[in-house]
Design goal:
The chain has a domain of 127 residues. The chain has 34 helices and 6 strands. The model has no long low-confidence stretch (mean pLDDT 91). The chain binds one DNA strand of 10 nucleotides through α1, α3, α5, α7 and α9. One of its GO terms (biological process) is RNA modification.
DNA sequence: CTAGGGTTAG
């Protein structure tokens, strides 16, 4: 149009401005603004109105206001846009002032104006103001419509606000909006956040025809209240009934599974959704990837990575971050790094994912390098970054450096230490054998220590055979988490290592009287795209005879080279010979043996375990890594062990 | 011929 020599008038310009707002391109919009100005359109209301909207879209509140003030006779539309803009930014005072000015100018506000402010305040997390606006709207004589309801409901996010939510539900019924799908979705979401599963179902049942949005909110709500089984049941039921489930439905269900320990189900759902002809998007991928990481399903994870490359979502910052996390959890920290380096954009979470990965792998030097690098790149660390830094120092035995970072955190960064930071410090001091110092720190903490403090203290007492402090820590843990069998096992391990069998027995009696049993050890290993689960003392796996035979052969080889079993990891007071046999059926050994049997020499294995790896298994796997020429990754609840050529990356300290 | 508001997945 311009190259034809036609100068744009005040009719076409608002459309052009709208297009630039859609692009969120500040530069282009400003050019159009200039163009309008030189063409003499200084004071056209509609044009200036569209510019107000444009500047708001680009997050330029001041400019938007300046343009608004040049409108000769501002109308409701422009004013409403500015009002919602102020609310979106959380400018409560400005919103109220402008509201006053609007009345002075004689502007008649309408529902759209109110709804914009209500939604805006929720956007800026000013939930109370959102609800106040909803009330004001009502007292100004406006009846809430469907938009008002779904705009205000996100303000009700917890039990404290539930009474407000119930009142709003009352409005819904009174205004006859019970069949409005958007309203119902928001209501279900609200009851889900307030942990009211019965109310969720009730609202859905009252719908004449179930809506996919309400279904999605229901699935998320059920999983949020810890009921994945229920969510899966409803999901299958809706699918059977022929409800048109969309990407959001499938993604919600996948997220719900991967967040609640149903990792295999999440992978299966991903496959199914594609068979149903639905295309996973850039949200589906980061919902699914944690499932791969949780069970160290590296092949599945790589397949998902390929999928994201093929479908052009791999540049998404959430996808990239989830990939970093997945590879780290699958034992491939170098691949995490490669993903990180190839990301076009990163945020705090991406940096923390890499930092946490290095910490979990005990790569202290790399973790500290990344910590420096992130700051050089202008990314401020947060409390999570410090948790990883301290944990890395603890894993690497950098006691003094750890103390330095701990002090620096509050002094130089203004981040007050939380429980998890103290927890790292207890591990840090404890592993250095400075048990008394660790205990002193616990006693001086400004907050009440919980299980994440006493637990590591007890563990280090177990490693360093400190009976006195171990007993104190154990007593606290028995109060705080009476049903956690691990604590009883640790204390009895300390007694057992000192041959105090009477005490060992009394701890075992305590466990028995509470009906507690030692948590069954459980390991997973992925072989040729199939994930195998092995339990301690497993008899179910079809290859069990071969596994036992393999382990027997290995034991003979080990004894030839002077290996002695670490029998103090066996709880029971039994004969030495039996103890050795008990060590032999630990699940991590079974998983490694299964891997050896089913893959060719030189192929790396990765195993994950639901408890901490035991000292004997650690020694055995070190031997295997050399004897069988295998790299073996074992992830336990605490960290990664990378076995290679007879040594472990943890340096035998964990 | 032109300008304004909402829910459900990370």
């Amino acid at each position: 149009m311009l190259s034809q020599g036609i100068s744009p008038d005040c009719y076409v310009l608002p459309s052009v401005v709208k297009a630039t707002a859609g692009l969120s391109s500040l530069k282009t919009g400003v050019q159009v603004h200039c163009l309008a100005f030189v063409n003499g359109h200084h004071s056209d209301s509609l044009l200036l109105s569209s510019l107000v909207h444009f500047y708001l879209k680009c997050d330029r509140l001041m400019e938007a206001r300046k343009v608004f003030d040049r409108i000769p006779r501002p109308n409701v539309v422009a004013c409403s846009a500015l009002l919602s803009g102020y609310a979106r930014k959380g400018c409560v005072e400005e919103t109220k002032e402008l509201l006053g000015e609007a009345v002075e100018m004689g502007l008649e506000l309408n529902s759209v104006s109110w709804n914009g402010m209500i939604a805006g305040f929720n956007h800026s997390r000013h939930f109370k103001d959102s609800i106040l606006m909803f009330r004001d709207m009502h007292s100004e004589g406006f009846k809430p419509d469907g938009t008002s309801i779904s705009s205000v409901l996100p303000a009700v996010g917890d039990l404290e606000m539930l009474p407000c939510g119930v009142q709003i539900h009352g409005c819904v019924i009174k205004q006859g909006l019970s069949q409005d799908n958007w309203v119902v979705s928001s209501l279900v979401d609200m009851y889900g956040k307030c942990a009211r599963p019965n109310e969720m179902s009730k609202v859905c049942e009252e719908l004449h025809e179930m809506d996919v949005g309400a279904c999605n909110a229901l699935i998320t709500g059920l999983s949020r209240t810890g009921c994945v089984e229920g969510a899966l049941k409803r999901f299958k039921q809706f699918k059977r009934q022929g409800l048109n489930l969309n990407v959001v439905s499938w993604t919600s269900m996948i997220a719900s599974c991967s967040q609640n320990g149903k990792d295999m189900e999440a992978l299966e759902l991903f496959r199914e959704m594609q068979m149903e002809g639905l295309k996973p998007n850039s949200v589906t991928i980061p919902c699914l990837l944690p499932a791969c990481g949780n069970i160290a399903a590296l092949m599945h994870g790589k397949a998902v990575h390929c999928f994201s490359l093929k479908n052009w979502v791999s540049n998404d910052v959430y996808v990239g971050t989830a990939l970093i996390d997945m590879y780290a959890n699958c034992g491939r920290i170098q691949l995490s790094r490669r993903c990180f380096d190839s990301m076009p954009r990163r945020n705090l979470v991406s940096w923390n994912a890499l930092l946490g990965g290095y910490a979990m792998h005990g790569k202290t030097k790399e973790a500290l390098e990344v910590f420096n690098l992130m700051q050089k790149s202008g990314q401020e660390p947060d409390f999570i970054s410090f948790t990883s830094v301290l944990s890395a120092c603890s894993q690497g035995g950098l006691t003094e450096e750890g103390k330095f970072y701990f002090d620096s955190m509050s002094k130089d960064y203004g981040i007050e230490p939380r429980l998890e930071h103290y927890s790292c410090m207890v591990s840090l001091l404890g592993r250095a054998g400075r048990i008394v110092e660790a205990y002193t720190m616990v006693k001086q903490m400004p907050m009440e220590p919980d299980g994440c403090i006493w637990g590591p203290l007890l563990s280090s007492c177990r490693v360093h055979h400190n009976l006195a402090i171990g007993e104190i820590a154990a007593r606290k843990l028995f109060e705080l988490e009476p049903n956690n069998p691990g604590n009883y096992v640790l204390l009895s391990n300390i007694y057992a290592s000192k041959s105090m069998w009477v005490e060992v027995n009394s701890v075992r009696e305590m466990m028995k009287s509470k009906g507690l049993r030692k948590n069954p050890g459980c390991s997973w290993i992925e072989i040729k795209n199939k994930v195998h689960m092995l339990l301690a003392g497993d008899n179910l796996h079809p290859q069990m005879p071969e596994i036992t035979k393999k382990l027997g052969e290995l034991r003979v080889e080990m004894q030839k080279s002077g290996y002695l079993p670490h029998t103090d990891f066996v709880l029971q007071d039994v004969e030495e010979q039996d103890k050795e046999e008990m060590l032999c059926d630990h699940s991590e050994k079974l998983a490694v043996a299964l891997g050896l049997l089913n893959t060719s020499r030189g192929f790396p294995l990765q195993v994950i375990k639901n408890l901490r790896i035991c000292g004997d298994c650690h020694a055995v796997i070190k031997f295997i890594s050399e004897f069988e020429d295998r790299e073996i990754f074992v992830r336990d609840t605490n960290r990664f062990h990378h076995f290679k050529d007879g040594a472990c990356s943890c340096g035998d300290l964990w």
